[in-house]
Amino acid sequence: MVHWTEEERCTISTLWDKIDTEEVGHQALTRSHLVVYPWTQRYFSTFGNLSKPAAIAGNPKVRAHGKRVIVALGDAIKNLDNVKATYAKLSELHSEKLHVDPENFRLLGEALIIVLAGQFGAAFTPAVQATWQKLLSVVISALSSKYH
Amino acid sequence: MPLTQVDKNHVKSIWSKASGKAEELGAQALGRMLQAFPNTRTYFSHYSDMSVKSSQVHVHGKKIIDAITEAVNHIDDISGAMSELSTLHAHTLRVDPANFKVLSHNILVVLALYFPADFTPEVHLSCDKFLSCVSYALAEKYR
């Protein structure tokens, strides 16, 4: 089981309360998956026009999906002491139905940290970054747990 | 994944701002890496303070940014620009090259933090490619 200090819990929820799930999700998904690592578009063949950064940024399916991802992150944050169980079904979904390479979770996680840094600036201190990196590594591990 | 002319322009543009704050950005990138990725601390066990505020981290962070500035200034021959540093990392420091990716991530975080308006997704892409090239060049002499 992952151990969280009171300070870490507080750090996570303080930043979470300030996050606009749709905007952050959109930025992270656009940046990572679709612009910086264009090969990740392989999972979004039904999303329509992803041909250029501007098309990606304006795509409503991308926006909706980005929001869904961050809302799911909220579930992990509400269940910090049991992220693995919370994500069991999601893990199965990504493995069995969506066939997503778990490397993508890492890429999206990196992009999310970069988006948060850009949005929160100096408030995204080294300590806040370290706590959120830990959160994302727990999330990524949980999402990868049902792969076989 | 070679750098296009657009990539080179993006990198030179954002780095012209970064190079002027070498010590601050370097300390931030290195300090954040050491704080968020504890495995990397193994290479700095001789530091008395590994935080962003540490003078040792400041000195070393500046060295890193200055070295990357060299790579930017020789962007058509990153391999040549990094040659001596590659020898150093390969034979003396023996840093596992996997760590270059970790530091690169933290450099990107710092660029986003300090230059949010300039660090667009397209610039992010170019910087990510550029830092991959630098990392590759740094690992060239390893074996």
Automatic annotation (TrEMBL), chain B:
<comment type="similarity">
    <text>Belongs to the globin family.</text>
</comment>
<dbReference type="InterPro" id="IPR050056">
    <property type="entry name" value="Hemoglobin_oxygen_transport"/>
</dbReference>
<feature type="domain" description="Globin">
    <location>
        <begin position="2"/>
        <end position="143"/>
    </location>
</feature>
<dbReference type="Pfam" id="PF00042">
    <property type="entry name" value="Globin"/>
</dbReference>
<dbReference type="InterPro" id="IPR009050">
    <property type="entry name" value="Globin-like_sf"/>
</dbReference>
<dbReference type="InterPro" id="IPR002338">
    <property type="entry name" value="Hemoglobin_a-typ"/>
</dbReference>
<keyword id="KW-0408">Iron</keyword>
<dbReference type="InterPro" id="IPR012292">
    <property type="entry name" value="Globin/Proto"/>
</dbReference>
<dbReference type="InterPro" id="IPR002339">
    <property type="entry name" value="Hemoglobin_pi"/>
</dbReference>
<protein>
    <submittedName>
        <fullName>HBA protein</fullName>
    </submittedName>
</protein>
<dbReference type="InterPro" id="IPR000971">
    <property type="entry name" value="Globin"/>
</dbReference>
<keyword id="KW-0479">Metal-binding</keyword>
<keyword id="KW-0561">Oxygen transport</keyword>
<keyword id="KW-0349">Heme</keyword>
<keyword id="KW-0813">Transport</keyword>
